[in-house]
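Box 3.1. Reading complex inputs
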Amino acid sequence: MASTFQLSILTPERSVFEGAVEYLQVPGSQGYLGVLAHHAGLVTALAAGRLTVRHAGGRGEVWEVEGGFFEVSNNRATVLADSLTGGGPGA
Amino acid sequence: MSSLRVLRRRIRSVQNTQQITKAMEMVAAAKLRRAQSRAQAARPYASKITEMLENLAGAAGEIDHPLFKAREVKTTALVLVTADRGLCGSYNANLVRGAEQRLRNSPTGAIQLVLVGKKGRDYFKRRRYPVLAVHTPVPAEASIDFARTLTQDLIDRFVSGQVDRVELMFTRFISALQRRVVVETFLPVGAAPAEGRPQNAGTIFEPDAESIFGELLPRYAGAKLFAALADSLAAEHSARMIAMGSARKNAGELLDLLVLRRNRLRQAVITKELLEIVGGAEALNG
């Protein structure tokens, strides 16, 4: 089983997701980037695009983000999205 | 007897009032619960963005961003967050009084008002204080879109140099029984660099700390304003709940008094009639 890390997806109005994930792909302002467990500390702005998550266990989920910020530190990732839609199953 | 009829009519009217205030109290209680959970739901984002801002302020070093720079203050915009509706005790009165006090204690024109909510607008419309902008109606549930529009308006005024400082005056919700009018500086954004967080070292910034910081500032301001609006709404509902609760209680006390008076009067009428009958019979038996 792949190792996991903690992910929080937050919008100004509410917390959308909180839990352990295996893989995460976010639309960074400099292009898409993928994050696995034990990623180096990183802070970036987000562009509009697709946010893909693989949950612990392999199930995928996809959101559309407008923009915002993304931070990883100490195996904790946080997405601060300006607005978020979707949450349907995906790759 | 006419005074008995007047009393009965009065009792019915007070009963109606009691019913209405009771209904309003219950509605306010339900809305308070919703407003509270909305304010709570926004907290993780707000605390995270604050943390990021502090970390970045430390990492970015020299920051030269218009929203961050304190200038010599000639004019201050005071954003006053009032309610659209009344019947909530001293909620609006406290805000309006606080703002007026600030206006009186500073030279003319040094404080310009930005009024959020109908009650504040109505009050200051008739007075000679300078009003920069009015934002009303306020959405019934705290909305990030409204907060963003307002934030953008304030940022534009600040950056263009129309005002040198923006302050927020709103009601902080403490508990269902407690709230307090507070004033906070909104712009320029004051961010103290985080101390003693060595894990910052080695963090990758894409593209770089300064530009992320620049993008973070307006969002941080927006989140702060959203929190103030959400708190204000919760405070408004709790103030209304308390006000209506005491109105209901007062109506109950008044009702007890009126019912007692009615019963006495009714008894007096009966006694008087009996006396008349007895007196009449006596006279016949004579």
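In summary: DSSP finds six helices and six strands in chain B.
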